[in-house]
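Exam revision sheet. Question 4 asks you to relate a sequence to its structure. Input first:
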Amino acid sequence: MTLNDTVARVTDRIVERSRDGRARYLDLIERARDEGVHRPTLSCGNLAHGFAASGEDKATIKSGQAMNIGIVSAYNDMLSAHQPYGRYPEQIKIFARERGATAQVAGGVPAMCDGVTQGQDSMELSLFSRDVIAMGTAVGLSHGMFEGALLLGICDKIVPGLLIGALRFGHLPTILVPAGPMPSGLANKEKIRVRQLYAEGKVGEEELLEAESASYHGAGTCTFYGTANSNQMMMEMMGLHMPGSSFVNPGNKLRQELTRAAVHRVTEIGWQGDDYRPLGACIDEKAIVNATIGLLATGGSTNHMLHIPAIARAAGIAIDWDDMDELSDVVPLIASVYPNGAGDINYFHAAGGMPFVIRELLGAGLAHPDIRTVYGASLEEGAQEPFLEEDALMWKPGAEQSRDETLLKPVSDPFQSDGGLALLAGNLGRATMKVSAVAPEHRTIEAPARVFSTQHQVAEAFKAGELDRDVVVVVRFQGPAANGMPELHKLSSPLGVLQDRGYKVALVTDGRMSGASGKVPSAIHVSPEAYHGGPLGKLRDGDLVRVCALEGTLSALVDAGEWAAREQAEAPPEAWGTGRELFAMMRRYSDPAEKGGSAMLAEAGL
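Answer key, structure tokens:
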């Protein structure tokens, strides 16, 4: 199938824009392979430290004749998605020995659970935890002991952070190893019903906790299609997972065999063989475009409007929101997974999942087949489903037809003709909106503004009945520089209640919403942010605001002369506590949301 003209044009534009940066990056990883720190260059003292505690692997590592794989793990047993990783290192070491290789845990990185920190002060650490994870990954891989890497991580900032850090060691062949989603629990519709009843004061905390516990009930990734599962989708679209491995549940034989396959495969793509596949060559402009197209086609998390540009920058690639918006015009929405639809990620997987998505997009010329995947000749091999035959891992072609068209549809008959994300622009700045979960009748809202500086103020106003009207709720000073750009997902329930009461309601903020953003139209990531003099700082209560995903507009309907004369509102004082003061440097030097909201990348000049 011929590549879609728009996809080709946008890709060519990204390639041209990235030409100098990509050349510098490829030179970096070439020099790292040939001249960088690696085992043959280590002194005897360096090397002895490196294998001192390696037990039965010591002799093999000492010999320098076999690949030594660096494991970077985001394991902790508080985060359900990462709890299964606890036993992975010992399994990986066994699987590596099967191929005459060795493996060592190069380092651990933090894994923050946004589900735990939603609505809490500690959420202000969340976005910048991505930079910390990237730096932690770099520290782990910096020892020069490794000829390959396996990255163990799933959730929100963790996969982007692991990739950004690993890309600075892009000469290493690297595979990401998922652990899978938890089995389905309480139906999502029922969970939302209880949340909204609680927001209205109609049920208490005991009922709410019971519902939440029935939804988030075991080991594995949360089953809604938020940032964590969008991460896994992107890894498949870039060919960085073993095919079809993202959404196999933890704790079964198939899951273990997929991990074994990843370990075996990384030993086959090292630089001493004839199939060298370094991470920095696998993640190129076409792979980044594929990740974006997958996000649009599946209605994925808005958080990736920050993460995709940041990952790309670490590989010398420049992609922006205009590129994403242009792609959205031609990429149809072919998945409807909660919060966009009723079924969760397990039902999506059963309906055909990523093999079906990859086949459909490639068949329609909407994705690049000719990327360097970790597993085969092209992305076409990613359209396969793993299965066990007498305990042996095999792959078969994925479903040619959706097994459930309430969750997955073909490109020829999509849920909607364009992607699940929209770019908005106007005199309030530039923003993004996840429209895939928003009903068409709610995609244009024109109403008076009510302006807040914290999400807690919104909750108080809701409880006091002050928002029982048509209203555009504005929450400003929530950008990276102001307070670390926390997610404002706790606003979903009260705003959803207002919408259900028949009011026209929208959210406008320079902060983030969760990957589970739902039915209320939300113009988020507004740039420039109010803290840096962005126009949200000029808004006043009662100003008429128009938010329109159909026209792509975000505007205050205020006389131009009056608007120009207005002064900026004063930012709230910088908050301390819960470790927030330790991130002051990151807030101070962070770059805009559209570039990824990173202090680390900004200061590195990437």
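Marking note for examiners. The chain has a mean pLDDT of 94.
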